[in-house]
Amino acid sequence: MGSRLIPPAGPARRLAAAQLTNAVGDGAFLVCSALYFSRVVGLSAPRIGFGLTLGWAVGALAGVPLGHLADRRGPRGVAALLAVATAGAVGVFLTARSYPVFLAAAVLYGCAQCGLAAARQALLAALVPPAERTTARAHLQSTVNAGLAVGAALGGVALHFDTRAAYLTVLAVDALSFLGSAVLLRRLPAAPPAPAAAGAGPRLAVLRDRPYALVAPVNSVLLLYMPLLSLILPLWTVQRTAAPGWTAAALLVLNTVSVVLFQVRVAGRVDGLRTAARSVRFAGLVLAASCAGFALSASGSAPWAAAGVLLVSAALQVGGEMLLAAGSWEIGFGLAPADQQGQYQGFFGSGVAVARTVGPLLLTWLIIGWGAPGWLVLGGVFALAGAAMGPAVRWAERSRTALAPGHPVAGTAAGSRLGEPHISG
After folding, report:
1. 254 phi and psi, to 5 degrees?
2. Which helix (H) or strand (E) holds 288?
3. DSSP-based helix, strand, coil % in the chain, nearest 5
4. May I ask the CATH class of domain 1-195?
5. What is the DSSP letter of 403?
6. Nearest to residue 68, comparing CAs of 337, 274, 315?
7. Residue ranges of the chain whose pLDDT lies below 70
8. How far apart are CA 141 and CA 322, in angstroms?
9. CB atoms within 10 A of CB 46
10. Closest CA to 342 of 112, 12, 68
11. Domain 208-425, CATH class in plain words
């Protein structure tokens, strides 16, 4: 089991250690941040929601230029710098006692986090051979989930004490975790910057790469599963089902443990764009099935029966999540030019920020407001988005095959057939 949880010795393992360090802080922050902003900073729920939404929205826009900076200045140094910037943003949260300061910290936090994700992806692409990237990314995801679980437990201790000192301690641990991550990132092998070639076209070529600009939003739609566990399912469980309240916590534990144990195995089945598109298509269908199960959980059954339906549906949901992750990692890397991974990963990864920005409001209205029909609508959206990924990837593949080498959007996928591993030159 250890070989499935820990990446092989080398850059991937050291990158996993860096992400594990800040994931512990992230887990504690996610559990405690809302109560900290409410009880310590003194902000109302609408103000907190608006500030965090604004921060992630600006972060989604900043991901591409910050990823481009990683391409041109070297992803290792930029990733370390953005980890320090994230620690700084948490430090501002620690001292914030007014709304403008909170808003400034939220914007800095969103930008630094989105840029850090893009730079780390570019660093992974630079240090790990193309054929090993999806598996390495799966190891990282398992590591991150384990770190989030540990951090959530620390956050739970703070929630138990429910004091100003406990919340301040959690935020301080989060800031220190990102500083520790920056130190570990600096110890990775240097990845040389990729200077722009003469006549390479616009600086932010991804914004003019229409096939990629279709693939990324399709992936963003599927990422709407993200707010389900943290927001929608707890509300649904309590308000719409007869299941015991603790079921919501059991669903989160099931999700976290499943990703830690099985993500690497699921990713091992993806070895090229064809299998990646197939994995995403299956992910859409499995997520749709989970939505149907969640809708069924409100059918007025006995508490234990409702809890059982929720657990089975959550198992389907995490299965779809892992299939989506494995396929989308291969697609995001495989369709990006070797010398522009940073900006391309910044654009592809903006889907996470979009899901965090739009998802809570949209899914609260759709599911909590509509009830079971809302679940069915969401399931249909998942199934359609999963089915759309195959044609979108094939279009992107054809566009790269038709381009001459050196074209600004011709990259690792150029000249290869759909389904073959992509080897950068």
Report:
1. -55, -45
2. helix 273-296
3. 80, 0, 20
4. mainly alpha
5. S
6. 337
7. 1-5, 194-203, 401-425
8. 10
9. 8
10. 68
11. mainly alpha
The span from the CA of 152 to the CA of 256, in Å, is 11
How far apart are alpha carbons 51 and 167 in whole angstroms? 19
Nearest to 122 by CA among 38, 172, 171, 64: 64
Sign of CA dihedral 75, 123, 416, 396: negative
Question: Tens of pLDDT along 124-143?
Answer: 888 888 888 888 888 888 88
**CA-CA-CA-CA dihedral for 163, 169, 171, 175, to nearest 10:** 170
Distance of alpha carbon 320 from alpha carbon 222, whole angstroms: 10
Sorted by where each begins, the domain ranges of the chain are: 1-195, 208-425
Cα 307 from chain centroid?
A: 27
Evaluate whether 1-195 and 208-425 have a shared fold: yes
**Can you state the angle between helices 45-73 and 341-363, rounded to 10 degrees?**
170
- Within 8 A by CB and 6+ apart from 327, the residues are 270, 275, 276, 277, 278, 279, 280, 283, 389
pLDDT, tens digit (0-9, with 9 covering 90-100), for 13-69: 888 899 999 999 988 888 888 889 988 899 887 888 888 889 989 998 899 899 999
Contacts (Cβ under 8 Å, ≥6 apart) of 63: 114, 115, 117, 118, 346, 347, 349, 350, 353
